[in-house]
Design goal:
Length: 86
């Protein structure tokens, strides 16, 4: 996908979600909105973050490659390296 298309997709997506919340699907199939700061647990070591420790997500962003990232302590980390604590 080229940059122009990615920007358009992101603009459409952010009509539903924004940088201060995420939508999660719970085990019972219900959808819940979690607002920042939300708590996540690191699945791997990513210095300075440590596996198994909890961190506060300040914001949620998306790269032009359409990858979601959590902003933690001012730095961006790919979301799949974390478990969201509900």
């Amino acid at each position: 996908m080229e940059k122009q298309e990615a920007r358009k997709y992101i603009a459409e997506l952010f009509k539903i979600v924004n940088t201060s919340s995420i939508l999660v699907v719970l085990y019972d199939g219900k959808v819940k909105r979690l607002h920042c700061p939300l708590t996540v647990i690191a699945k791997i070591d990513m210095p300075p973050l440590e596996k198994g420790k909890e961190y506060a997500v300040e914001a949620v962003k998306m790269t032009l490659q359409l990858e979601d990232v959590f902003i933690i302590e001012g730095r961006a980390y790919l979301v799949w390296y974390f478990v969201v604590k509900v």
